[in-house]
Design goal:
- The chain has 11 helices and no strands.
- With 267 residues, it is mainly α.
- It folds into 2 domains: 30 residues; 226 residues, no CATH class.
- Helix 2 packs antiparallel against helix 7 and helix 6 runs parallel beside helix 9.
- The longest helix has 48 residues.
- It is elongated.
- The C terminus is likely disordered.
- It is a multi-pass membrane protein.
Length: 267
């Protein structure tokens, strides 16, 4: 479970409810069927128009990604693995790594190492793996784009809902008290549109982009590690090279364990 997504969602709802309470508005004011219908169905309509059905089918999976902790291997463990492979390859040759392929769970890493063992050159391996990363980035971008689309139009649909509510309210101005309640209810659509757009959809899009960025970074680390092993670089050199992908704390751990030094502090 992605704790930050859950906590952030709860904080957003609490902020809205508590803010309404301090303003003297009861939470039941949000239970406006017309406003909910316009915002929710209208937002779904904008996304449906903007994206093909093949991408819309991925929405349930995207929600699962949002609220599930990202399962990536530790970068430090991956770097240590490359250092071990490099040491074995330098001592016994690249074919000695053939037995290691079956032990790899990550399909991307397994494919890259298999290409290296099969004798493919560095340029070919980089091209194949980079194209796979680019295709993945495109899929991830489309997924985040659906939430960005929803976040862009939900507030505008809130204005539309308010206009519809005002039209209904101004049809009968004889009862001033009733008119006041009708106008208040009309702006619930605006409230819901802004809340869903800027507390739900845009943050959801940003979370997907961040998770995509983390996965891309790790795959780029893998590409460099595979090519370094292929080129016969020393384990300590590989650790120094790949340490640039790490946080400052993990970088110090790797370089400290290898006895390496000389890389600048993280800015």
């Amino acid at each position: 479970m992605d704790l930050s997504s859950i906590v952030g969602l709860i904080m957003g709802v609490v902020a809205l409810i508590v803010g309404m309470y301090f303003k003297g508005v009861t939470p039941d004011a949000l239970m406006n069927p017309a406003a909910i219908f316009i915002i929710i169905l209208g937002t779904m309509a904008t996304v449906t128009i903007a994206f093909p059905m093949s991408e819309l089918k991925r929405l349930p999976k995207l929600f699962k990604i949002l609220f599930t902790e990202q399962k990536l291997g530790k970068d430090t463990d991956i770097i240590k693995l490359f250092a071990e492979w490099a040491d074995l390859a330098r001592r016994e040759g690249l074919l000695a790594l053939e037995g290691k392929v079956a032990e790899i769970d990550d399909p991307f890493l397994k494919n890259g190492l298999s290409l290296a063992i099969d004798g493919q050159n560095a340029d070919y391996i980089r091209d194949v793996l980079s194209e796979e990363v680019e295709a993945m980035e495109e899929r991830h971008s489309a997924g985040a784009g659906m939430f960005t689309q929803a976040g862009t139009y939900a507030p505008t649909l809130g204005v539309l809902g308010a206009v519809v509510g005002l039209v209904a309210a101004l049809k009968d101005m004889n009862d001033i008290e009733k008119l006041g309640h009708a106008i208040s209810a009309a702006f619930i659509a605006t409230l819901l549109g802004i809340f869903t757009g800027y507390v739900l959809w845009h943050p959801f899009a940003n979370k997907l982009k961040r998770k995509s960025s983390n996965e891309v970074r790790q795959k780029m680390l893998m590409i460099e590690g595979i090519l370094s092993v292929l080129e016969g670089e020393a384990p300590r050199v590989i650790e120094q090279k790949l340490a640039s992908y790490l946080t400052k704390e993990d970088r110090k751990k790797i370089l400290g364990e290898s006895g390496a030094s000389g890389l600048g502090e993280e800015s």
